[in-house]
Automatic annotation (TrEMBL):
Keywords: Acyltransferase, Transferase. It is an enzyme of class 2 (transferase). PROSITE patterns: GNAT. Its EC number is 2.3.-.-. The keyword Transferase applies. SUPFAM superfamilies: Acyl-CoA N-acyltransferases (Nat). GO terms for molecular function: acyltransferase activity. This is GNAT family N-acetyltransferase. Coiled coil: none annotated. The keyword Transferase applies. Pfam families: Acetyltransf_1. It comes from the Bacteria.
Amino acid sequence: MPTVRVVTERDVDQLVESVTNLFRDDAGQFDPLTDTSWPQREGHARYSALVSDPDWLLLLAYDDGGRLIGHLVGRVNEPGSTRPHRSAVLESIYIWADIRSQGVGALLTTRFLDWAREQNAVFASVSAYAANEKAQRFYQRQGFASQSVMLQTVL
């Protein structure tokens, strides 16, 4: 059974490793305009600053042998003038390829949604590349439904 724990300052390098894999595998495949070197360059400073921020949830998943197998990063947003409800955003999730379809992503997502409810979020959102149909199917199985579509053109 995998274990999930909240990231501490000593875990930030492992989080950056997992986020690096996400950028390489996801943006590297589906979005050639994304700078996939961002995690190595700025990830440690970014996530170190978020470790103690109560509006952010940083999780790492490990297999029975203690090997890192994935992460989740989520946040809550305060109400705004056009959306007068607290919301949660699943910023990123990544599971090692050899572990996928074994429930780790669902475990991380459940922890995120439970946390979002505890933070009094009214809804949660996540985005996925249009071409990443596997990710979209995964999110739909977790209860997410399409709400809008963003269209883009490269200039």
